[in-house]
């Protein structure tokens, strides 16, 4: 084929909200699905694509990684990237989606603001598969199923008081006893200052983020977020019509002084102060206090995403921003997805007293309530002391798996990955040599059965040095060692291809 043949179907000029990464991905996928690119055709290298299209290499790598993960293309060692011989079922779904996207009549029936939802990261559509080294994945195989079954049976036993009510509705804000249990739990474990009335049960932390951003923001408002950061937060902010101000994170976490200097009109900040995602830093006390003072002066808001603070491996837990603030300007988000299991889809907000009714009304519109039965089980799990014991046991288990990952990387790949051993969370970040491409490496690892997140996929504006995010929560030491061995081979092949 002639040089730069692919520019014939790639058009990066667009006025919609999709990123360059998404446009490249979708246009390659469309070319494959419509037959412009045929099975076995070789794609340009990421370096060739980036140079021809005038984009960063991380952008090209991200697009290729998504194409690989969804089965559109395959990477062959030492040969390059090729269109897959057989397209998976997800390709058929994508084909239907793209057909609708190209149909002007269909688009004309959809509100213009719906285009903001096109910015949802592809990674958020992928099921939480327990493949090394999936991030944010708790040890689901080690969950005490027998104990959960026993609690459930006790609630549904013949003659159990109130068993029939488990099948009915509860308050829109959530099952009252569960909200009381959460308030007590947060007061003891996180220093949160709240009453049960301030707790609102939601269907996962992502729904909580969506509710909070839509209620606290008007279209066009500036909002501060961490860079790099959680794609779900960015998606919620974009869907709410916010103008995103990305604030680079350093070793002390989020820096409100920098954020205020670069985005002076912002009145909302979304942060993970206890364990910043993905870098794992804890926001320093000075910066936490400065952020609270900023919200007070601006009459603004802080959304505190406290997604996995239960898992800290050294030092004492830091007090929540909400507790330091006294519950005036902070909306606190917590979840049971990490401490129990992700399929439960239960999380909670702690909202300031003046906006309780607003959040409850929004919860009614967004889904009326979360399932009563699951809420009652979780309440019983907490009040009978099972949650505290379970968290302590899992913290020990994760500490062992964290150490296994540190040792395996140190023994097998000491020269290729500089591990940043975070004291919190279910994953750690490993920095690569500065001229390496984390997206290409991630795609090559996917072809070998690993799921490794490149930091380039998590950046909002600022380009970071290349790095890989490695989850350890759901993987035994044996699986971790096997995964590291496979990763070592991937890195060796990558190094050899560069020489």
UniProtKB/TrEMBL annotation:
Pfam families reported in the protein's UniProt record? Aminotran_1_2 (PF00155), GntR (PF00392)
Q: Does the keyword Phosphoprotein apply?
A: no
- Tell me where the transmembrane regions lie: none
Please report the stretch or stretches of sequence annotated as the HTH gntR-type domain: 18-86
Xref: InterPro entries: Aminotransferase_I/II_large, HTH_trans_reg/aminotransferase, Tscrpt_reg_HTH_GntR
Provide the GO MF annotations for this entry. transaminase activity
Q: Which UniProt keywords apply?
A: Aminotransferase, DNA-binding, Transcription, Transcription regulation, Transferase
PANTHER family per UniProt: HTH-TYPE TRANSCRIPTIONAL REGULATORY PROTEIN GABR
The name of this protein is: PLP-dependent aminotransferase family protein
Q: Which organism is it from?
A: Pseudohoeflea coraliihabitans
């Amino acid at each position: 084929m002639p040089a730069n043949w692919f520019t014939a179907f790639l058009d990066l000029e667009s006025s919609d909200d999709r990123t360059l990464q998404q446009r490249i991905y979708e246009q390659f996928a469309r070319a494959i699905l419509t037959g412009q690119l045929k099975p076995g055709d070789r794609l340009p290298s990421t370096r060739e694509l980036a140079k021809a299209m005038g984009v960063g290499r991380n952008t090209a790598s991200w697009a290729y990684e998504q194409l690989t993960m969804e089965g559109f293309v395959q990477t062959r060692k030492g040969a390059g990237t090729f269109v897959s011989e057989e397209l998976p079922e997800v390709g058929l779904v994508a084909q239907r989606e793209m057909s609708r996207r190209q149909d002007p009549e269909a688009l004309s029936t959809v509100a213009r603001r719906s285009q903001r939802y096109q910015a949802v990261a592809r990674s958020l559509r992928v099921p939480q598969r327990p493949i090394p080294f999936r991030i944010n994945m708790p040890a689901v195989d080690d969950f005490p199923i027998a104990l959960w079954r026993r609690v459930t049976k006790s609630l549904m036993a013949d003659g159990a008081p109130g068993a029939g009510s488990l099948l009915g509705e509860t308050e829109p804000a959530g099952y009252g006893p569960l909200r009381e249990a959460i308030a007590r739990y947060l007061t003891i474990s996180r220093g949160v200052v709240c009453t049960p009335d301030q707790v609102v049960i939601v269907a996962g932390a992502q729904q909580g983020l969506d509710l909070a951003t839509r209620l606290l923001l008007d279209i066009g408002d500036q909002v501060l977020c961490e860079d790099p950061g959680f794609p779900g937060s960015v998606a919620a902010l974009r869907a709410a019509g916010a103008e995103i101000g990305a604030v680079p994170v350093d070793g002390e976490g989020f820096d409100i002084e920098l954020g205020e200097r670069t985005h002076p009109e912002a009145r909302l900040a979304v942060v993970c102060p206890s364990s910043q995602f993905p870098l794992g830093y804890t926001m320093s006390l000075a910066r936490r206090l400065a952020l609270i003072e900023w919200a007070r002066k601006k009459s603004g808001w802080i959304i505190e995403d406290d997604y996995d603070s239960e898992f800290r491996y050294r030092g004492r837990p830091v007090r929540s921003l909400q507790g330091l603030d006294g519950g005036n300007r902070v909306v606190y988000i917590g979840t049971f997805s990490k401490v129990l299991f992700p399929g439960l889809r239960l999380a909670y907000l702690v909202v300031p007293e003046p906006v309780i009714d607003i959040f409850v009304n929004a919860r009614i519109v967004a889904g009326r309530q979360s399932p009563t039965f699951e809420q009652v089980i979780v309440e019983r799990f907490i009040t009978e002391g099972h949650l505290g014991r379970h968290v302590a046991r899992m913290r020990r288990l994760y500490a062992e798996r964290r150490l296994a990952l540190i040792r395996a990387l140190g023994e097998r790949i000491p020269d290729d990955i500089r591990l940043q051993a975070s004291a919190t969370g279910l994953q750690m970040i490993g920095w690569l040599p500065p001229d390496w491409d984390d997206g290409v490496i991630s795609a090559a690892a996917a072809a070998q059965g690993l799921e490794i997140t490149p930091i380039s996929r998590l950046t909002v504006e600022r380009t970071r040095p290349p790095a890989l995010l490695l989850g350890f929560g759901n993987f035994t030491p044996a699986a971790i060692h096997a995964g590291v061995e496979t990763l070592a081979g991937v890195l060796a092949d990558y190094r050899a291809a560069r020489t």
